[in-house]
Amino acid sequence: GAVVSQHPSWVICKSGTSVKIECRSLDFQATTMFWYRQFPKQSLMLMATSNEGSKATYEQGVEKDKFLINHASLTLSTLTVTSAHPEDSSFYICSARGDRGGEKLFFGSGTQLSVL
Amino acid sequence: AQRVTQPEKLLSVFKGAPVELKCNYSYSGSPELFWYVQYSRQRLQLLLRHISRESIKGFTADLNKGETSFHLKKPFAQEEDSAMYYCAPGFYGNNRLAFGKGNQVVVIP
Fold first, then answer.
1. Residue B33, burial from CB neighbour count under 10 angstroms (0-12, 13-18, 19+)
2. Three-state DSSP class for B70?
3. Which helix (H) or strand (E) element contains residue B85?
4. Residue A39: its pLDDT value, please?
5. Closest C-alpha among A80, A74, A69, A76 to residue A111
6. Residues A91-115: what's their mean pLDDT?
7. Cβ contact (<8 Å) for A57 and B45?
């Protein structure tokens, strides 16, 4: 089946620094990618929807200047957490929808971000 | 607003007992609905989709348009079914996909 690679799987950073998370579709072209945030034992919270070549659509309450999303190619989307603070510590998950499987989504393995 | 509701956050069942996870949606038109599962320390994966009737591990779900429901069922729970289950509508609006709050299922041996 289709594979989505998310990197890094975990990252620790100091408060005030920026962190970039990559999401790659390895064997298909992802026309749409989604970024989610998940707190322990909580549901996935959709942060933004990213379509290749256009600006991401952010959900209400998600700061677009804080969480920069770039989807410059059909196989790569990045999420950059700018000026990270401890409250940004969370599990971030990407998913991709592409030319395989129609409406089916394929998920990355997630990135655990810890901001000190 | 378009949304999906999963009322029970935690469901504990004994091995061999039936499992039913409720999902209600509020959408106009005919959505395509999915159930996704997240096992401990694993990524989310598709469990079942409405249109293709794809299913794994013995789970089924019927779309009831009258009740706007897409409940997930399995007649006999297994220990390996312990996981987090998410109901998700098909894509809508600006190609968005949001998940329900999820159900934590614990199967007691």
1. buried
2. strand
3. strand B83-88
4. 81
5. A80
6. 83
7. no
Question: Are A27 and A81 a contacting pair, CB within 8 Å?
Answer: no
Nearest CA in chain A to B47: A104
User: Which token pair is A69?
Assistant: 């999303």
pLDDT of residue B94: 47
Q: What value, to the nearest 5°, has the Cα angle with vertex B66 and ends B62 and B71? A: 30
Is a pLDDT exceeding 90 seen at residue A89?
Answer: yes
- Per-residue tokens: B59: 């789970």
**In this structure, which amino acid lies at residue A50?**
S
Closest C-alpha to A79, from A1, A11, A2, A15:
A11
Q: Flag whether residue A57 sits within 8 Å of chain B, measured between CB atoms.
A: yes
Q: Using CA atoms of B51, B56, B59, B65 in order, give the dihedral in degrees to the nearest 10.
A: -10
Residues across chain A: 116
The single residue listed with the structure tokens 């999906």 is B4
User: What burial class does residue A94 get, using C-beta atoms within 10 Å of its C-beta: 0-12 exposed, 13-18 middle, 19+ buried?
Assistant: buried
Please report the pLDDT score of residue A30 as a whole number.
85
Concatenating the DSSP letter of every residue in A78-116 gives EEEE-S--GGG-EEEEEEEEESSSTT--EE---EEEEE-
Query: Mean pLDDT throughout A32-48?
Result: 85
Q: Please return the burial class of B67, using the count of CB atoms within 10 Å of its CB with bins 0-12, 13-18 and 19+.
A: exposed
Task: Quote the tokens at residue A57.
Answer: 């659509």
State both tokens at B55: 């299913």
8 Å CB contact of B32 and A103: yes
